Amino acid sequence: MENDSTSTCFQLLYGRLSDVWSRKLVLFVGLAIFFIGSLAASLAQTATQLIVFRAFTGVGGGGLVTIAQMIVSDIVPLRERGKYQGILGSVVAIANGIGPVIGGALASIGPDSWRWIFRLNLPLTVICTACVFFFMPLRKVTGDWKLKLKAIDFFGAGMALGGTAVFLLGLMWGGGEYSWKSTQAIVTLVVGLLVCIGFVIWQWKGTKYPLIPMHILKSKIVKGACLTMFINGWNFLMQMYYIPTFYQLVFEYSTVKAGAMLLPITLMQSAFISLPPCID
């Protein structure tokens, strides 16, 4: 969860940063952060260290997701864009399917074998970096990078990250470590919600160059896309976090079997993500 939080919040910054220093350079930075975070997570000695390193990994992961989609938009004609977006979606869906199976198999080998879940990212990141270096064209960026950097809303990004983190902390505490009526759960939920509301107001009225221009929400297409992605994200989190845990705790499945039970869902997702662009 901590990985997804930082990944989501830093996606707001990567688009702006890539306008300053080019897509390719920022993608290299994202890959480096992801590599270092995965290596650190594999060496974690406590749960707190693991959470922190996973959050750091998410900072790099947010760049990989955002920049990959932006590169497709830059180099692929509009008519062909849906096909390539479908390919990206299929790869993600397949990875989400086989990832829990591989992770479950590695974690079940021994007490410390879970570390190989993160070590597996290292050679894949190196291969990806080499492909980007040798095959991806570098698009030159014009303009003064200092002026562009000043236009980036770092304060807004901090509000988004802080509000999301505090609100999620309240959700995790409530009903678990603390009761829903406890001061800790109520305060974190209220503070997180207020900061998120403050972020929306700041993007609307407070900054000259917002990370999320509020005027785009006037479009029905954007509203429909946001609603669709909200539902998709909800289902994704249920699929990746809740369902495998439910299988293990309620049905007492092994980690490998619990991961394998997700394959029907992910295979169908891959098929239907790729189908519309091919029909078009």
Structure characterization notes:
With 280 residues, the chain is an all-alpha fold. 80% of the residues lie in helices and 0% in strands. The protein is built from 12 helices and no strands. The chain has helices at residues 2-21, 23-42, 47-75, 78-107, 115-119, 121-135, 145-150, 154-173, 183-206, 220-250, 255-260, 263-279. Helix 1 (2-21) runs antiparallel to helix 2 and helix 8 (154-173) packs antiparallel against helix 9. The two termini are 36 Å apart. The model has no long low-confidence stretch (mean pLDDT 83).
List the helices and strands and how they pair.
Layout: H1 2-21, H2 23-42, H3 47-75, H4 78-107, H5 115-119, H6 121-135, H7 145-150, H8 154-173, H9 183-206, H10 220-250, H11 255-260, H12 263-279
